[in-house]
Design a protein that fits this description.
Layout lengths: L1 H11 L5 E3 L4 E3 L5 E4 L6 H10 L3 E4 L4 H5 E4 L2 E4 L8 E6 L6 H13 L1 E18 L2 E14 L1 E7 L8 H8 L2 E6 L2 H10 L18 E3 L1 H12 L9 H21 L7 H8 L2 H8 L3 E3 H9 L1 E4 H8 L3 H13 L3 E4 L2 E4 L2
Parallel strand pairs: 1-12, 3-10, 3-11, 4-7, 7-10, 11-13
Antiparallel strand pairs: 1-2, 5-6, 8-9, 14-16, 15-16
Helix pairs in contact: 1-8, 4-5, 7-8, 8-9, 11-12, 11-13, 12-13
């Protein structure tokens, strides 16, 4: 499921807009992911591999100037974020960013822009085109408009104590990853590898994906059912709905169409309970996510063979996933709850 989500974020960075016919509105298409990870997870290795495949831009700058860029003597000097157009942007250890940079990430996820104040006054407006966006410098500000989806990572336990990071967390599809001893040993033996089939990732940006009214109703009908997140937290459900729309659009584009259908919605709904579990801060290991991914009518033995574990080991993960309402069992076969 982790790799499936990362691929979805990459595809979403190639979609310009999603049009919601029901409400006659445009939905921001980019899917952002927030990963709370254990120490030693190999996040930077994963980020570098995605960057080498030209699927992502791994940002290592921790200041606003380094991320956005600057203006000197009437000339715009680009920052690291300028390389993110129509790609995934990966930020590691966001808790270590300076406060202004944290606020910048909230602007980026909400508006698709990154703005910084300049020390000097720009006498006349300057523009500079970059892939997937442009710079605008005028008066005392430099703004970068860039079309990108983001993955944010941190090993910190204090994210909810930081107002800006808490806000960022609420705007993302969140995963709280755990890692037991067996998984750690396996990681050290095999290394961190990310397997993403690029065949269904569009090479060129997609102008628009249409969300028909009946497909939106299908998503809303599911959300209206009893959820894991308390009903009083209505703001969560509005953002969750938008993320499900984005996932539907991703699947639509992957099958080379531009109108969301029932198959696309069902693809998105497989993530619904996982989205809620992530928001609630429940930890799941990568093995649990891998088992969740292959739970499509298989027996415990078949799942064990698929993920390379003993049947007795698989049952522990299956019970955890079932208790979280992520999977169900019919007879001897396990499936994701949709």
């Amino acid at each position: 499921m982790l790799e499936k989500l990362i691929k979805s974020a990459i595809v979403s960075s190639r979609i310009i807009k999603i049009y919601d016919e029901k409400l006659d509105r445009t939905v921001r298409p980019t899917l952002n992911i927030f990963i709370r990870k254990p120490f030693g997870f190999g996040f930077s290795t994963m980020a570098k591999e995605l960057e080498e495949k030209r699927l992502a831009n791994y940002v290592n700058d921790f200041t606003v100037a380094g991320i956005v860029g600057t203006v000197r003597q009437g000339r715009i000097y680009t920052g690291s974020l300028a390389n993110s157009g129509y790609r995934l942007t990966i930020f590691d250890e966001v808790m270590t960013l300076e406060n202004k940079a944290k606020k910048l990430l909230n602007e980026l996820t909400e508006q698709g822009t990154a703005t910084r104040s300049l020390q000097g006054y720009v006498e006349k407006r300057i523009e500079k085109a970059v892939t997937g966006g442009k710079y605008i410098a005028e008066e005392g500000k430099l703004t970068l408009q860039v079309h990108t989806a983001c993955i944010f990572g941190t090993a910190s336990e204090q994210i909810l104590q930081d107002t800006d990071i808490k806000m960022l967390f609420s705007r993302c599809f969140c995963l709280n990853l755990a890692m037991d001893k067996g998984e750690a040993v396996k990681l050290k033996k095999e290394g961190r590898r990310i397997r993403i089939d690029t065949k269904r990732i569009p090479e060129e940006p997609i102008d628009v994906v249409i969300l028909p009214e009946d497909m939106n109703d299908m998503l809303l009908e599911k959300i209206e059912e009893e959820g894991l997140v308390p009903e009083a937290e209505g703001g969560y459900y509005t953002r969750c709905h938008d993320d499900l729309i984005r996932l539907s659009a991703v699947h639509c584009v992957a099958r080379k169409d531009n109108t969301i259908n029932e198959k696309d919605v069902k693809f998105a709904l497989q993530f619904y309970n996982l989205h809620q579990v992530g928001y609630l801060g429940v930890q799941l290991s990568e093995v649990a996510l891998a088992i969740l991914d292959v739970c499509n009518g298989k027996t415990a033995q078949e799942i064990a063979e698929k993920v390379g574990l003993k049947k007795s080991q698989v049952y522990r993960y299956l019970n955890t996933l079932q208790n979280l309402n992520l999977i169900g069992k019919v007879g001897s076969r396990w499936s994701k709850r949709i």
